[in-house]
Amino acid sequence: NADGSFPGLNQVLADKKxxxxxxxxxxxxxxxxxxxxxxxxxxxxxxHNVPTLFNDLEKGDYRAHLLMLEVLSTSELYLDLKKKYIxxxxxxxxxxxxxxxxxxxxxxxKVTYFITDPSSGIANSQAMLLNSFKTVTGxxxxxxxxxxxxxxxxxxxxxxxxxxxxxxxSNEKITLTPNSPGFEFSPASTKIxxxxxxxxxxxxxxxxxxxxxxxxxxxxxxxxDNAVGSPNQGINHGLLFRPDLERGPVAVFGNKRxxxxxxxxxxxxxQSDFTFAVWLKMDSLDIEQSILGxxxxxxxxxxxxxxxxxxxxxxxxxxxxxxxxxLETGKWYHVVWRYMKFSGEQAIYVNGxxxxxxxxxxxxxxxxxxxxxxxxxxxGKYFNGQMSDFGLWNRALSDTEIWLLAREMSPxxxxxxxxxxxxxxxxxxxxxxxALMYVFRKRxxxxxxxxxxxxxxxxxxxxxxPVAIPYRNASIQLFGKFDITxxxxxxxxxxxxxxxxxxxxxxxxxxxxxxxxxxxEELTIVLWKGFDSKKATNNRNVSxxxxxxxxxxxxxxxxxFQNNFWKIELDSTVExxxxxxxxxxxxxxxxxxxxxxxxxxxxxxxxxxxxxxGDQYSWLDQxxxxxxxxxxxxxxxxxxxxxxxxxxxxxxxxxxxxxxxxPINEEMIEMLMKTLTDIxxxxxxxTRFSQEYKLYYGEKFAVPFEQLFD
Length: 710
Hints:
The protein is of the alpha+beta class.
């Protein structure tokens, strides 16, 4: 199908394509009626235990629709199973049928192709008994996209991707409860009766707050106090604190400089998921540098998160995993160590990207105190360098949460932790350098992942906004540059001073996000933090009065104050692109609404530019990040659903729009290169993409132009 899914039997018959030819050959065939199996399916390696998607993937993408399994009668697995089961009275075909059934139950995918030989004793008719079972099917989605993996709570610890199918007996009753790092679900669980499994199930995933189950957070700006506010504190053993041009105040570690922590039990990481994250910079190269360690050497009971020959290392003693990337001295890196008990995964991330992972590691079982920057392993080692923003969660963070932490788009710093002594140094000594770095880092922070991002759940939408309204009294534009236009078509944005401009943006966005608007207290914190009560009140009253006088000229726009909440009310005659954007996005979530009229209306709104590109306020970042992420997700969805319908020119326009919001989308640059026919234009796109890619990742884009443009 155009969306990449495999057609069902009814669709095959309706399309009169009763014969489908799939090849296992990796090479492309010259025949358009021969399809590569690997575009639609994957293969698991048979194992003595039930094979799983993550531990036994032999080839292909486990998120594909078709599953292949091969068990030959000459294989070691079959011979071992024969000894174990056939001697106890089972026939070969009965066991193999149960093996296929268990594989289906474990992975949430029915075996589509089972390859065996006559000597195995299972006939086609017997294998087809799998089709006699009733089926529970469904999706676990976030922003319209299935999650990459889902853990199903229960005794068997099944895990699947976001599209699942389970067999169920007629007299069976089951409860499905999804779980996945970084998400909570609605509904939390669903009960299924085998007598009537019902239609396709949907579980909707919502990202959790980054602070959920955060046990430790050390900014390392001036002490080792735990900013989370829990009784678990760090004890400073000789650390120094100094300003760094990139990170601000940081902690300096070295020989006999470390931090002691409470026990692993007190921190909640024993026999549990956990995530450690830290910014670090090495001052020297050593065989072993400890980031987190213990003083014990018990098997599976001695945690050591370290740099071994400058490569991130993850272990519990006798249960270890080595990363791939070698870190350099004098450079800041964001490094994350994540453990997930359900799969035994030990994973290492560097600068938000997966460095390496391995599975089937038993959980950490130690109970001793932990130490930042010190361990007794490998002769007893310290960390020689600097650290900042050290965090520990007794849960597994999602890939998106890790990515956001590395991009510093999901801050965990508490309010009130600003360091005025460092500000003084910055202003007097390095203000020009800091300004350049700020611009560069803000540019990096504007990038967003294409999937799995938190939506704006509280956004207040009108019931239905018509696609086109012939006359409007006034318009407010937030995409591209911020602008206000009166009924005569005159821009009034220059009538607003910088503070009044910011006040209007605060009231506009909070009024759309929350039905009641923004409270007086929160408005004061955002715009007049640090002012005494009387001065803040005077400034607020003067600013609101000035804004009201400007808006008086715009019919349909009014500031209201009720029950201590401030709000801008817009009637239906006011053209407000932010409001319209989300109305169209809501419509376009259903492919049935992908009409030329609605697509064109949405395109015209967001093609004016990214959200408030000319306005930079700390409180605004959360709105920018989430709006961009929602648009990126929808644009991917639109292109996926309409790729075959769009003309070349239309497809190029939509890809170009997506890359305005997501300039380093590798999948889109590949699609664009295949669509363009003008080599000069294609090279311009490729050059621009390569420049953005290097700016963002700090490395050259590896795929040459000639390989993409044919």
